[in-house]
Amino acid sequence: MIPLPLLLAAAAVGYGLGSIPFGLLLTRAAGLGDVRAIGSGNIGATNVLRTGRKDIAVATLLLDGLKGTAAVLIMARFAPEAGAIAGFAAFLGHIFPVWLKFKGGKGVATFVGCLFGFAWPAGLAFIGVWLAVAYLSRYSSLSALVASALSPVVLWFLGLPAHAALVAVMAAILWAKHGENIARLRAGTEGKIGQKK
Q1: What are 28-33's contacts with CB under 8 Å, separation 24+?
Q2: Inter-residue contact 118 to 74 (CB < 8 Å)
Q3: CA 15, 181, 142, 137 torsion: positive or negative?
Q4: pLDDT in tens, the chain (197 residues)
């Protein structure tokens, strides 16, 4: 167990970083309006891509991922457990940002960012699986679902059972946030990568 002050600091740092809505901030700065008014209404990179600005979408993806990595690495300097807590809090902060009335993104980029913070091979494994499924299916949501489901397994084989358990919880939350996507995938109506809605 880590000291309560360190636990609270890790949660605060993680949530603070995670709750920065880069997709919304970048699209507004680029004069694209409110990204929540288009497509899925999500603030993540996939919906930002529907604005037609690939550069803004890539920037959103990188920054949403880096805030998860940063949260983990900053607090892991004090204790590995603090890094794990900060990563989890960053993930929750992205999904439930207080600044947007707790209506944020679906957490995929921040999820993989946390993986890189926990163990970079797990992050690379996520990207590899995501790319393979995306290439075969053209569905961003399906790629994220498959890659996130396999992530706890990868961490387990890397000898990080506690992190694997935490990431399993994160993956369950990510799946819950993709409930509508799952329904559309089953119905064959899910939008494909690069498709405008």
Answers
A1: 30/56, 32/56
A2: no
A3: negative
A4: 789 999 999 999 999 999 999 999 999 999 888 888 887 778 888 788 888 888 999 999 999 999 999 999 999 999 999 999 999 999 999 999 999 989 899 999 999 999 999 999 999 999 999 999 999 999 989 999 999 999 999 999 999 999 999 999 999 999 999 999 999 999 999 888 755 55
Q: Judge whether 71 and 6 are in contact, CB under 8 Å.
A: no
Rounded distance, CA 64 to CA 7, Å? 23
For the chain, the domains span 4-187
Contact 129, 121 (CB under 8 A): no
In this prediction the pTM is: 0.92
